[in-house]
Amino acid sequence: MAIIVNLDVMMARRKMKMKDLAEAVGVSTTNLSLLKNGHVRGIRFATLEAICKVLECQPGNILEYREDTE
Questions:
Q1: What's the structural domain count of the chain?
Q2: Which of 67, 48, 69, 46 is nearest to 57 (CA)?
Q3: Which structural domain, as residue segments, surrounds residue 19?
């Protein structure tokens, strides 16, 4: 996959647990875990905005593009 999700990195920098972030954003821990592990095909801008607000970061801190080497 060319899009890398660095949510775990930002959570570690902010010393925030998955459960706390899920509650603050208003999503289930299951959905947040799927996003964190890159097992989703899309994300709503409202959800991305809420995550960025809580983690005090930019979308580019969470999502990264890397060209496929295949």
A1: 1
A2: 48
A3: 3-63
